[in-house]
Amino acid sequence: MPTTGSCHCGRISYSLAEDPPTRAMACNCSICRRKGYLHHFTTPARFTLKSSRDDIQVYSFKTHAVRHQFCKTCGCAPFAEGLGSYGEPIIEINLRCVDGLDVGGLEIISYDGASR
């Protein structure tokens, strides 16, 4: 079953060729802590952006390994693109932006990004 998601205003939308996740990673790094992200990682081959990149603003910091994507209109950040720990391309999905997903039912795994 495909998984879909979007920003608040709907200008950025995507689909994933996988079932909705049951686990999420909560990171305490400076940006994740402030934005309240709940992460799911997948491969670019499973991710399809359904909207124009013209509606996306990108923010990177520190090592610039991750490009945080957010909507120019509503400011929501439904996904990020970057490199995983072994240099492989990854897509990070903000599970708070997944359509119909009850984040209260997710198993949360903590990650200490603040120490990295």
UniProtKB/TrEMBL annotation:
One example GO MF annotation: carbon-sulfur lyase activity
UniProt keyword list: Metal-binding, Zinc
Keyword Ligase in annotation: no
Source organism phylogeny: Bacteria, Pseudomonadati, Pseudomonadota, Alphaproteobacteria, Sphingomonadales
Family recorded in the similarity comment: Belongs to the Gfa family.
Lineage top rank: taxon: Bacteria
Protein name per the record: Aldehyde-activating protein
Domain CENP-V/GFA: 3-112
Positions in coiled-coil regions: none
InterPro entries: CENP-V-like, CENP-V/GFA, Mss4-like_sf
Organism: Allosphingosinicella deserti
